[in-house]
Write a structure and sequence with these properties.
- The chain is built from no helices and eleven strands.
- The N and C termini lie far apart (41 Å).
Length: 166
């Protein structure tokens, strides 16, 4: 697991062409315990749940609140829509990662700390779900903050079976 000293929750930060950040609600599935900033996925029977690390399908978005732990509770999240930008810590679970220029535009997966905080996993190049599009922290920073967009193919918003498809 990644060191937790500088890992902070994933957050939404920008919206392109929108007057406000969309906030959607989903119905929490049984026995959930995610933290704010968790990656959420579409689950059984029209509910939502926390993704497994390295999720590459059915991503709905990022939790705005901790899970309630109560089945059927409506929980807010920011959807992983193509034009929304999020901010996360870039980290390597095996060693502290130092931000370098070649991290720009990298397509990577997600990891989660033992404390339940999600981050972009610098070492996860197979299960890709996010693309880094901007540095928040300066080059040379350990556990740097970066801005990213979800890869559309990793979300529920891609393909003919996507939400809103005609």
């Amino acid at each position: 697991m990644a060191a937790e000293d500088s890992v902070r929750a994933i957050d939404h930060v920008q919206r392109v062409g929108l007057s406000h950040t969309p906030i959607w609600y989903g119905i929490e599935t049984a026995a959930m315990s995610w933290k704010r900033g968790a990656i959420l996925i579409a689950a059984a029977a029209g509910t939502i749940s926390e993704a497994a690390e390295d999720a590459v399908a059915d991503i709905l978005g990022v939790a705005l609140e901790d899970a309630s732990g109560v089945t059927g509770t409506a929980v807010p999240y920011v959807p992983a829509l193509p034009h929304l930008t999020f901010e996360a810590t870039l980290e390597d679970p095996g060693a502290t990662h130092t931000l370098v220029q070649t991290d720009m535009f990298a397509a990577l997966g997600f990891g989660k700390t033992a404390g339940g905080l999600w981050y972009i996993d610098e070492a996860e190049i197979t299960a890709q779900a996010a693309r880094i599009i901007e540095f928040v922290s300066p080059l040379g920073t350990n556990q740097a903050r970066v801005r990213f967009m979800f890869l559309v193919d990793a979300t529920v918003f891609s393909g003919p079976d996507s939400i809103g498809a005609s």
